[in-house]
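Protocol step 4 of 6.
Sequence for Carbonate dehydratase (Thiobacillus denitrificans) entered exactly as in the expression construct, tag removed. Do not edit the line below.
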Amino acid sequence: MIRKNPSGHLPVVHETAFVDPTAILCGKIVVEENVFIGPYAVIRADEVDADGDMEAIVIGAHSNIQDGVVIHCKAGGGVTIGRNSSIAHRSIVHGPCTVADNVFVGFNSVLFNCSVGEGSVIRHNSVVEGCTVPPGFYIPSTANIHSDKDLASIERVSPQAADFSESVAQANHELVKGYKRIRNEF
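Step 5 output, structure tokens:
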């Protein structure tokens, strides 16, 4: 479902993107080309700042927002998901937040008030908030990162982790084509 927010903003979805019919996109959202937005995802840009303004939620080209993901922002802040990034099942991205290009965010992870550098991997059930993750970092499953100081114990992304992230992105890119092809069947 694509709908306006109370301020009157309507999502802008590129014609090559696929948004599952069960997903909800509300408000000031930009979905770029070849994006996959899976079943029951909720992307909502509807809160304003003290001046009544808000930044957009932007989903970069060739990214995938998987089943049950929630993306939202408080007090008019924005969320940017870079190109070729994967936000896996049931994750929460709550802005203000920036996720760079080629990032993998694992199942059930939570990002809040943070910036994640290009090529980073955040594995399953992790929490990242209030910090800046440099490019190429690997955050292991169940990690809790609450400051830049916590990042000192984090190792760089291994080639195997990067390969996994790229395979997820490619699989979801193929889903966009497949679902677009059968769009009129449901």
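Step 6, annotate. DSSP finds one helix and 20 strands in the chain.
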